[in-house]
Fold this sequence. Notes:
The structure holds three protein chains of three kinds. Chain A is an alpha/beta fold.
Amino acid sequence: MLLEVRNLKTFFHTFRGTVRAVDDVSFTIAKGEILGIVGESGCGKSVTGFSIMGLIEEPGKVAGGEILFDGRRLLDLSDNQMNEIRGKEISMIFQDPMTSLNPVYTIGEQIEEMLTLHSSLSPRERRKRCVELLRSVGIPNPEGRLNDYPHHFSGGMRQRVIIAIALAAEPKLIVADEPTTALDVTIQAQILKLMKALVRERNCSMMLITHDLAVVSEMADRIIVMYCGQIVEEGRARDVIENPSHPYTQGLIGSIPKLNEDKSRLETIHGIVPNMFELPEGCNFSPRCRFCREICFGVKPDFRLANTEGHLIRCHSACGVSEGGNEV
Amino acid sequence: MKYRLLCGVLVSILCLSGGLSAVAADRELIVGLAGDAYSLNPYPRNETITNAINNHIFDSLIGSDNDLQPIPALAERWETSEDASVWTFFLRKGVKFHNGNDFTVDDVLYSFDKVKIRETSAFSFTLSTVESYKKLDDHTFEVTCKAPNSLLLAHLREISILDKESCDGQTEDWIALHPNGTGRYKLVEHVREDRIVLERNEAFWGDLPEPVKVVFKPISNDGTRTANMLSGAVDMIVNVPVRDVEMLRKRENIAVVTQPSLRIIYLNMQGWTDSPSPDAAKPLKSPDGSNPLKKLEVRQAMYHAINEDEIVSKIMNNLATPTATYIPAGFNGYNPDIKRLPYDPVLAEQLLDKAGYPRQADGYRFELTLDSSNDRYVNDGDIATAVAGYLERVGIKTNLNLMSRTIFFTYIGTKNTEGDTSHLCMTGWADSGGESALMALDLMYSIRQDGEVKPGYGGVNRSFYLNPKVDALIDKAISTPDPAERSKIMQEVWQIGADDVVYIPLHFQEDIYAANKDKIIYRPRKNNYIYAWDFEFVK
Amino acid sequence: MFKYLVTRIGQLVAVLFIVSMLVFFMTSVVGDPLQLLVRQNASNEERQAAMEYLGLDKPLYVQYGKFIVSTLSGDFGKSYMYHTSALRLIAERFPATMEIVIVAMLLSGFIAIPLGVYAGAYPKRMLSKTVMTLSVTGISLPSFWVGMVLIFVFGLHFSVLPVSGRGQVGSLLGIQTSFATLDGWKHLLLPSITLALSNMATILRLTRAGMRETMKQDFIKFARAKGVRNRKVLFGHALKNTLIPVVTVFGLQLGTLIAFTTITETIFAWPGMGKLLIDAINAGDRPIISAYIIFVAFMFVFLNFIVDLLYTLIDPRIDLS
């Protein structure tokens, strides 16, 4: 296992109360594996990513659990020691390419920074490598563009640059936080394809955080679904997409409009995400779940197996109920 | 740890070098002045500090003793014709300029020619009474006056003698940058607003002063000047502010020296006109439209209304001398018999009633505006405020109009381009000529509201006092060569002036100095000129 | 670029022209220059002669015309007080003023900016809070009071520094300056600190505010995610972004400092331009006042220009046209 996250808790202590942004989350990522983390905004998926990187800032704090990366306990490391790991072993791709790059430095300088920090190449070798990286992410005329500033690039191009930066030091794990959300749909497909190719090429792992099921179904080997800071379903990508077993996942997939169907109304998940300061006593999803029973209101559910091996859900239902409404 | 060591080393270096520089050279004098000399070309500016510094470098034909009476300088002696209209001067021999050139009569005549040029000389008035001058031989020359003039010496005394050979054909700027005189000191360095450094002229024709090197440091801020005295950076400071006197007196090594100044503070009233200050923003208002200042009783009443002793003790901290006359004691014409009208508000009220200005329904008799500066004389704003208060108490409504000196002097000028704006103002006057006749010329000689009676006379006669008898006496005094006789005539002039209450005198300021008594003894001059040869070193 | 330069120079000329008009007309209605040139008891004749000499008897527009013509040839006239060229006087005093201004700006740059970065990055720390509180006093305490206190403490009480005045002048890189001697530096310290205090406070607060803004930006977090060390994040990534408003204020302050060191120079008997200005104003010395103001206007325009150029170096998004 490259990454093992066990019982991770990250809380935000605000004036109005404590938000349990990540509440007892455990998962693993194997070498070369792409793990997709799916959920709505505010479910804690980005916070999970930042917790692993050690970038949680006040008023947030990692409150418990363990993060094992390549055998090392990340939560025990000092900031200086984490700096050795960030960028080099684990790198991150941010959501908004328009704001992730520093506007006053050239992209050449920003890519080179990775190499200066994490490699021992000479200046000439570094420059050569920057050109190579730009080429590998599909930017035309890379030598010429090294001295350009971020505002000379379009959104899609910038994201490519960011991907280049993320790959520069040959990391073992890439945490990609909504990498295509801010891009046009047409560009999205290109970027995703690029990312998948590069990751496979280098045999590095990826933690792909997104709210977009379509993206995750394309890219991920395994999928985790999060809701209100907790994992509600996990399993192989195919299993989760084709046989969603948790009511929430079913709602998510059900609400995707299908071109070959003729419906007058789109399906939605009724209700809204609960107030994070006042979570329900029982299952977090209970107020919105159409299958909920009395036990769901009172007791927090544990993991139980859905259909196939490795496919788990956090639900009180005896077993998963498939989309057609049939009990299996 | 390393930082502390570094700081320690730094502080030690500072202290050490501070200590080293404090061991000043012997016979060196450092004086903190209130300002810098404006120019080392002695002619363009006529101003106390500039003149005092230039007098170190240059000499005149005639010098002054401490009573401001004339003594020989470059002129060894002089003779005058019986009617004092022709003067003959015999120059000192063997005198050299700092650059080695000989001093001869040509230098004197050259200087006279130059001092007359209005555009570049502020001293042209010194030759205004002179008709012509001519060389008699290398060391003698003759001056013919337009009219009998016994006061020629007081004027000639102000003309510094330049070296014709070096100055002739040079620009004014060049002359200012290369001062070359016959005086006791030579210029070493002048850094504007920082220091003037002078060194003793070992070839001086008279007694050598004690200080070999003199540094004058202009420090215009009062507090900083005092701080320099306390820290020992200077040996003496001038114009000590009244509030610092006690603190300086307490110091063991500092002596505070005071000297009655030549400057008198007094009130001017437009008493000789029917239309006082027609252009004033706040004009004089009286119930019947007449000018109350015309009445002698009113002027006397105002004099009696003011409690000068209280002003001196409360506002001036006893550092002023109430006076009955504008003439400093020791001047020719000083009249010791003139006495102050005593503080008597009851009498004042009676006089005002008698003058025909009773209190009206609102309690006031008439309304005046008192104009005064607030940044020129010592505590001038406070004094004016007090005066206004005293006048109010006897029923005279007094508007107080304080202004900065740049505006004030134009405002009250007898030839104010803005118009005639002040009927009552408080000013000072100082004359270092030593001759009260010269003062009377400016203060008492007739002048009318619409123009001069005699050109050049009555320049600060703001009352428009018009008295032909006094004019005649002044003219006579000026043409009386014998000082004793002249004095008697002038004493009569001042008695008349006091009787007529042409002005209301308040007090003479004090010049206050602080000196390092372990190092020097300083004898101040009446005219507040700081001369290095007035210092002695403590043995 | 050429077009830009031409535009800027055109602006400079326009500004100077307007300023010269304002200066001329304002000084012609305030104060009476004759006061300085003739005695109080001068006769009418003397006054008339002085007026003709100064050209004050001519109508205003004629006077202005002569003023413009002589100004264009660099002749601002002779000072009424000093009877020497006004421009020469200003040039004489300029180095002394620049000495304390340079030290004051160095203090601002090397102390205030790093402290501002620190306070912006770690607002909750004790040092940050202390520094911010002190900065309020820096802005609110009047400089003449601070100057006097410094004189008292360091000049009188501890006697480690001189009370006032400029120190020994030596030769440094061919220029005569008091930077060249230890005595010079001792004299420079207190007036420079007095001058710098409110400047430093302003720059510090501005830097801090800018840092707080910048630190919230995504690219900062991204830099951290790259493994960039904290110091580099602060002084490399964050600071350059924060600098734009700081550079603007720095430039303006530099201009203001050069023009108005008046109070500090008076307190410390420092022979600079500020003291010259206040003396000229007090005395109504028109040539010096006009020369000074035009000089200052020129300087401000020039500094503004430099600041604009600096922007492009700092922020590549800014385009001069």
